[in-house]
Structure formats: structure tokens, C-alpha cells
Design a protein that fits this description.
Two copies of one chain form a homodimer. Chain A is α/β, with parallel strands linked by helices. The first copy, chain A, has a domain of 171 residues: Acetylglutamate kinase-like (Carbamate kinase), CATH 3.40.1160. Chain A contains 13 helices and 20 strands. In chain A, helix 7 runs antiparallel to helix 8 and helix 12 crosses helix 13. The longest helix of chain A is centred in the first third of the chain and has 16 residues. Chains A and B meet through helix 1, helix 2, helix 3 and helix 4 of A and helix 1, helix 2 and helix 3 of B.
Chain lengths: 401, 401
């Protein structure tokens, strides 16, 4: 007998038919002798509809009240799914985030799970109930309802799996698993049997929206056996785990990120502490800086160029302009039409061939590289946005053709 | 400084415009120096929509899961109302039934409030917050979400008023207050300034759907100053209290109940214990019996006729038929096309004139009376359903023309 945590997203429960299809997957798992905890998101567009209602009252509503509002979405889908499981002969009980003991911090709308009090979950499982827990939400130590932010149901599932020491946590999605590239864009994209947490984290950060980032960090921390698979059938998907087979492909995937912009601070005096000053300003304003390039400017000055997420651009520019005098720079230059294309795979650092094959593939398509960044398991290149899809295909062909 | 509990029903918060209108009534009360707890129902048809969703899954869903589902309706309206109050410059916080400490028994879908733990409500009020509490729902001692059944938000409001020792509990509705008859049907209907709990209870039971029955019982028990008034303006409505001015009208209202049927058990042997047996059977099956008439049948036997709510008819008939042998009766006779018309008013018993004026009014319209029942504050007559509206008008004209 294994303890399984199964997570279903909003599109998996968007209508009665899909709800029954999920119910039968869940009931089969239970009938095979497993203990089952289901974590479910809000149905289809429910969350968006609720947000729209709030906007009709206030364009900038209190985040506390937003969490009260949108957390109802999962309560609806969880109770309907429990009804469907009961209808087909199972014994299910829905539980809200607070009933399931999911305790978070007090950051409304993007709360972090501090822990899961497993007392009620364990006792309900002991009574042979299938549990349907609302994803995406929790409760603070002072009994306030919180939500985890978009995609937070993945995190709920992994946190519950960790608390219950579940044998497996299966994330059911619209896709069959994790591919070497976006299968809608790259027709040779290959479904991976397995991938490591770190590789998955890099892919997730890069916009391969299969799973929520924080959920993978949490799975890595507690070493949870994760699996991503399709919500339509019983095909095996992709296993995400700590150590994967040494043999086989080094490159695990190619992904792009178009939500990116570069900022250059021009003609900075070449003296210590200036770069520190710039990046401290970014950090104070909660702006993550990704690739950094320092180059020689005119008359012994330097230019510092770095990439940030597009939605941070306005803040970054206004902060830098306000502090330009103390930085000593001569102005800013902004590029928004850029994309980052990355190749992810463990052991890449010790395989010098990978980088040169990436550069070769791009050169073959006459794609210009603006910046380069490498890590243990990733090589990223910054290129013009118009070239992004072509670059992904070229690199993917290089490794998977 | 007074502590007010203000309750708004579903039609009062059915869209953004109405929500803002409620928000401004609430904020005005707060700005006048009062502490304010608002109790709110689900928006417009939300509850019906949720029930419809459940029916698409299971025609007879688990009541526990139904309560999980429908309780989301008030959470939505409460958070939106809190947003609206904040938007117009108030300081509001929404609270679910469990956050507000409303503890109920475990009868899902028609739970009874066992008490309100006022700790959080009092501390939030102490911090100068306007509180918006979800009506209609509570939590059991084992952390299960329950609902109080249709109209339960009135009961929530009164229970919270009792727990907080509120100075007043105001029920805002679609009508201006309590009338001497249904103003949509009787054009001379008069708005009452005040009415006693008992009179209101009788009118409520009789289908004058201004307030939920249990809420009035509770208000009477804790002697809560109740007021029913319109949700559109600031017109005074009807005060409901223990003792009302001795002067003035004896008759407070005329109401009808068409959800009624009569059952006759025919030719019962005239010996002790048979009537007891019949009404014990009804009680065991949770069927309330209203008017009872015992009359002579053939050959020294008796007929016993009584009225029950129409929706109990099937159960009553099947129980009686099953036990007919031990009752010793010769058969059943059912009438469904009946209505009960009642005149309500304190001190009626000591005013013999009232009954004869009622009978006179009906005779004047040639309306036949099937059964009569009187109490301290009520005279009810059972008549044919086709005559019901005519009877209400005739009696109302007699006392209020």
C-alpha cells in the first residue's frame, strides 16, 4: 500500500465530464490499494472570473480580501470532485486548506507554506477516506485565509506529500510530461522519461510552464518522488528526482524566455563599488538580475549591461535614473526586443563540446549572440526576440535530431 | 456609541452597484460613531447556481459536500462587500462563519447554532474594524463547515447580536418592513411601526417571508432589539420587541399559507390512545401537525382530521397506511386544495369581538370555513385554496379599512 498525492489543475476539472474523468482516475488508484490525497485547483476560468468581480469593485483591492475571495474557487472544485468520487462509489471528503492544516506566512496573494499539520489528514486517511484538498491556499497562525499565488496548487501538493511522507506525488497536466522543447513549436521535441530537480528548476524558470517553480524547490528539499503526466490517460509521464541515470542524454531541454529586457548603464567611472551600488539598488527593489556583462566604454569608463524581467523594467529605470548622479554614469540604454534561449542538462560543465555545439547551431542560422551566461547545468544566450523560435529549433535539432 | 449588527440579504448585494449602496449604509452607521458588524448572504442567485452545479454531478449529493460548496457563496459576497467599504474609505474585514466563531451542531444543510465564540469579533471591533461576516454558515466542534438552511443568515445575524450583546440588530430587506398583509396582494396593507416577537413568529410561520423563523425565536430568547427595514433608504421600518405599546391595533396582520394539506383518518374506534398513536407516528417522522379536528364518524367511531405541510404529505400517508391495522381506522382521506388564513395580534384572546369579525368577513364573501384554530395571538381558518386571496383581503379590509 502506497500513499499517493495526486494533483489536478483547473483545466482537468473545468466541467462535470472532466470532473468525473478525474474521479475515476482517483478511484482506480484507491481501488488498487493506495491511500490517496487529491489536490485540486479551481475549475477552468473560475479564478479569473473572481478577479474580474473584484475589479468591478476596486481596481486595487486589499490583498487579504482578494485571498478570501479567490480561495472559494478551489472549495467549489474540491467539493464537486468529492461528490463525483462518491457518486461512482468511492468514499471521498473535501477539505479546505485550513482544514487540511496547510499553514502559511502572512504574505497575502503569494504566501509561502510554513508547514502542514498532518493530524487531520492522517486521521481521515486512517478512516479509509479519499481526501480532496483545495490547492493554492492555506491559513496563517492567526486564522487568516491566504493564497499561494498562481500555480500554487503544485506547491500545495508537494508540501502535503512531504508532510505525509507520501510515496509519490503525481502532477496531472494538459501535457504528457516534460519535453526537450515546447512540443507546440518544435516538432521533434522528445518526451523525457526522467529529469533531475535542478534541470527541471532551470526549465521551469525559463518559461517551460509545466510546473510551478516553488513546488520543484520544495520537492528537491524533501526529496519527493515527483511525476508529471497527462490527465487524460494512464501513459507514464516524466519522473522528477534527485539523481538520474548517468547514461543517456546530457542535454535535457531547450527553452526560451521572452519576458526579458536588457538595461545598460553607460560610461561609469572605472572605480570599485559602482557595480555593487547598481545591483544593491536592484535588490532593494526586489528586482532579480540575470545575465551581467561588463564592457569597456569610452575614455577609460565602463558600461554595465544586465538582463531583468520585462515587468521590472519601469521600476529599474526609475530607480537608476534617480541615482544616476551617485552612480556616476552618463545614461541608460534599454533593449526590450530580446529573448534568452537556454540549454539545460546536468554535467554540461564537464562537457565542453556542448557550448560549442550551441554556438555552432546558432551561427549556422546566422543568429547573433548578444550575451552569454553559463552555469553547472545551463548555457543561456541572449539573442534578438525575432530569432528566438528559430534558435530553439536549431539548438534542439543539434542535440535531438 | 452603540454596537449594531446589520444584515443584508442576497438581493441587496446582487451586483457591484448594490454592493456599493450597502457599503455606504454601513459606512454611514460606522461614521456616526457605532461599532458595526455586517452579516451578508450570498449574491443574488449564487446559491441556486451552486446547487445546480452540484446537481450536474449528483442528484443526491452528500450534505457535507453541499455545505462545503454553497458556503462559498457568502464568502464571495462578504469579501466583495469588504472591498467596497474599503474603497469608499472605510476599514472593513470579511470573516467566514468559522473565523467569526459561529459554532453549530452537525446537521449539515440545516445546522443549528450552538453558540458564537466572540473572542475574535470583539478583538477586531476593538481595532476599529467594520466586520463583514458570512451569514448562513458555521463550523462544528470538529472543524466541519455547516450551513443553516435557507434564510439562515437572519439567524446568523441574531446569534451574533446576542453573543456581542449588540444594542440593535437591523435586518435590511427588499420590503420596507412588516405589513398587515402582503402588500403585493392587498393594496390597503399598512406598514407596522412595531410588532412583538410572538406576533412576528406567527406571521413568519404563516408564510409572510420577511424573516427567518428561527431568527425570531432566537431574538425572543435573548431579547434582541430587532428592526426590519428597507435596504434602499433610511426610512424607519418595523421594530420587533418583547413588549409593545398597549394602545393601538389589536390585529397586527393577516397572512395565508398555501403549503398545506389535510389528512383524515376515518372511522377509528372510539377508545383512548388512538389519537396519541397517530400523532406519535407523525412526531417520530418529524412531521409537524397543525390544526386538529376530531369528529364523530359512523357507528360510534371517530374521524380525526389534521393539517400538515404539503411536502410532508407523502411521508404521512405512507406511515399511516403502514400502521392502519394497529390504529384501527378504515381508511384515509386527503385534501390538498386548502389554504390557511390567519389573523395575528396580541391580546386577541381577550377580545372576543375579533373572532366574530373574522367569521363575519368570510361569510360576507360566502367563503366556507373547513376548520378553525385559535391561540393566544392567532385565529386561523382553513378554507379552499381558490378563496385564499379573497379571504385575506376581506379580513384585512374588516380590520384596516
Amino acid at each position: 500500500m502506497a500513499l499517493l498525492v495526486m494533483k489536478f489543475g483547473g483545466s482537468s476539472v473545468c466541467d462535470a465530464e472532466r470532473i468525473f474523468s478525474v474521479a475515476s482516475i482517483v478511484k482506480s488508484a484507491f481501488d488498487e490499494g493506495n491511500q490517496v490525497v487529491v489536490v485540486v485547483s479551481a475549475m477552468g476560468d473560475t479564478t479569473d472570473d473572481l478577479i474580474e468581480m473584484a475589479m468591478s469593485i476596486d481596481k486595487r483591492p486589499s490583498k487579504r480580501e482578494m485571498d478570501m475571495l479567490v480561495s472559494t474557487g478551489e472549495q467549489v472544485s474540491a467539493s464537486l470532485l468529492a461528490m463525483a468520487i462518491n457518486k461512482i462509489g468511492g468514499r471521498a471528503k473535501s477539505l479546505t486548506g485550513w482544514q487540511a492544516g496547510v499553514v502559511t506566512d502572512t504574505t497575502y496573494s503569494s504566501a509561502r507554506i510554513k508547514g502542514v499539520n498532518d493530524r487531520r489528514l492522517m486521521s481521515e486517511l486512517g478512516e479509509n477516506n479519499i481526501l480532496v484538498v483545495t490547492g493554492f491556499q492555506g491559513i496563517t497562525r492567526t486564522d487568516e485565509i491566504t493564497t499561494l499565488g498562481r500555480g500554487g496548487s503544485d506547491t500545495s501538493a508537494v508540501a502535503i506529500a512531504a508532510a505525509l511522507r507520501a510515496d509519490r506525488c503525481i502532477i496531472y497536466t494538459d501535457v504528457d510530461g516534460v519535453y526537450t522543447a515546447d512540443p507546440r513549436k518544435v516538432k521533434n521535441a522528445v518526451l523525457l522519461d526522467e529529469i533531475s530537480y535542478d534541470e527541471m528548476l532551470e526549465l521551469s524558470t525559463l518559461g517551460a510552464q509545466v510546473m510551478h517553480n516553488r513546488s520543484i524547490e520544495l520537492a528537491k528539499k524533501y526529496n519527493i518522488d515527483l511525476e508529471v503526466r497527462s490527465n487524460t490517460g494512464e501513459k507514464p509521464g516524466t519522473k522528477i528526482m534527485e539523481v538520474i541515470s548517468v547514461e543517456g542524454m546530457i542535454v535535457k531541454g531547450v527553452a526560451k524566455d521572452e519576458n526579458i529586457a536588457t538595461v545598460s548603464v553607460l560610461s561609469i567611472p572605472d572605480k570599485p563599488g559602482i557595480a555593487f551600488k547598481i545591483f544593491s539598488l536592484m535588490a532593494q527593489n526586489k528586482i532579480n538580475v540575470d545575465i551581467i556583462l561588463q564592457s569597456e566604454g569610452r575614455n577609460g569608463t565602463q558600461d554595465i549591461t544586465f538582463t531583468i524581467a520585462s515587468n521590472n523594467l519601469d521600476t529599474a529605470v526609475s530607480v537608476l535614473e534617480k541615482n544616476m548622479a551617485s552612480i556616476g554614469g552618463q545614461g541608460l540604454k534599454i533593449y526590450e526586443d530580446v529573448a534568452k534561449v537556454s540549454v539545460v542538462g546536468s554535467g554540461m560543465q564537464s562537457n565542453y563540446g556542448v557550448a560549442s555545439r550551441v554556438f555552432g547551431a546558432l551561427a549556422g542560422k546566422r543568429i547573433n549572440i548578444r550575451m552569454i551566461s553559463t552555469s553547472e547545468i545551463k548555457i543561456s544566450v541572449l539573442i534578438d526576440k525575432v530569432d528566438a523560435d528559430k534558435a530553439v529549433s536549431a539548438i534542439h535539432d543539434e542535440f535531438f535530431r
